[in-house]
Amino acid sequence: MRLGLVLLVLLIVVLIIAGMLGAERLPLTGWTEQQRSILLDIRIPRILLGACVGASLAVAGAGLQALLRNPLAEPYLLGVSNGAALGTMVGFVLFQNVEAARPVLAFAGAVAATIVVYRMAKSRAGMSAERLVLSGVIVTTFLSSVIVMLTTLLDAARLRSFTFWLLGDLSQSSSTGIWISGVTVAIVTVVLTSQARSLNLMMIGERDALDFGVEVGRVRLLVFGGASLVVGAAVAASGSVGYVGLIVPHLVRLSIGSDNRLVVPFSAVAGAIFVVLADTIARTAIAPRELPVGAVTALVGAPLFIYLLRRN
């Protein structure tokens, strides 16, 4: 529980720092009217969205890693994020004036990608890390190709906007996106935490979990459904921000062990911290220009992924 308190304090500190830093640095007090507008209308919505997105991706990664008993399971690597991105792309192209269509189609795309990857990775001998990663790479590559094909339907202005969004962009934050992703991650975090005991048993093995009375099918449905829901909401609001679901749960488990009663909620807080920090770097590194936040998370996540893959 000490780590939880540390993470909450760290989250508050990071939120304050993120609010002060940017193309124009703000003082802690005594803002001008222009500075107040920058903080309240631009930075705070963006920071809140980043926190919700980070929490969503980390919770999804924690749930998938526990369910699949694989530290390499992560929404971005398994193609779930690209499935959500494709669904959002369809909404972006065909239902541009219907804002609610994007999260709905993103969720549908995430569910479809999750089902395909799981079925491809599953074999009579079980599910190995190599087969899971290979299945994710294949689905991710295919979905990326479809997304590139659909970009030909966009004009130059929308193409530039969508390309930057696809790499991870929090600058287009809206109250709707914040509410949808925030409420979604809160609900899914509570649901997955309530299934922590079952997930702990399933990490030993599904057959052993069945012997202890775990309803494996129901837990699998809740985890896959919850992960798809939060990833769909996050991707619809911010684009594909990779490696958060890989890095954060792994670091949390290194700190406190594998008890999912703590791993799931702690991952949510740590994921929020990680993405807000990454977005702060993205906003300030080459200010007044910005980097895609997904590029910053990938710079940290890709080396760790290689390390985990070799270790596994």
Provide the descriptors you would attach to this structure in a database record.
312 residues, mainly alpha, ABC transporter involved in vitamin B12 uptake, BtuC, 13 helices, globular
Describe the structure.
- This protein has helices spanning about 1-20, 35-70, 80-95, 100-120, 130-150, 155-165, 175-195, 195-200, 205-210, 215-240, 245-255, 260-285, 295-310.
- By secondary structure, it is mainly alpha-helical.
- It has one domain (about 45-310): ABC transporter involved in vitamin B12 uptake, BtuC (Orthogonal Bundle), CATH 1.10.3470.10.
- The radius of gyration is 19 Å and the shape is globular.
- The model has no long low-confidence stretch (mean pLDDT about 85).
Topology (SSEs and partners):
Layout: H1 2-20, H2 33-68, H3 80-94, H4 101-121, H5 129-151, H6 156-166, H7 175-194, H8 196-202, H9 206-211, H10 216-238, H11 244-256, H12 260-284, H13 293-311
Structural class determined from secondary elements: mainly alpha
The CATH topology: ABC transporter involved in vitamin B12 uptake, BtuC
Rounded average pLDDT: 84
Low-confidence stretches: none
Q: Calculate the terminal CA-CA distance, rounded to whole Å.
A: 29 Å
The total of helices stands at 13
Classify the beta-strand content into a percent band: under 5%
In the CATH scheme, the class would be Mainly Alpha
Tally of structural domains: 1
Overall outline: globular
The SSE string, one letter per element, is: HHHHHHHHHHHHH
What would CATH call the architecture?
Answer: Orthogonal Bundle
Tell me the helix content.
Answer: over 70%
Q: Describe the biggest sheet?
A: none
Topology, number of strands: 0
CATH superfamily: ABC transporter involved in vitamin B12 uptake, BtuC
> What's the Cα radius of gyration?
19 Å
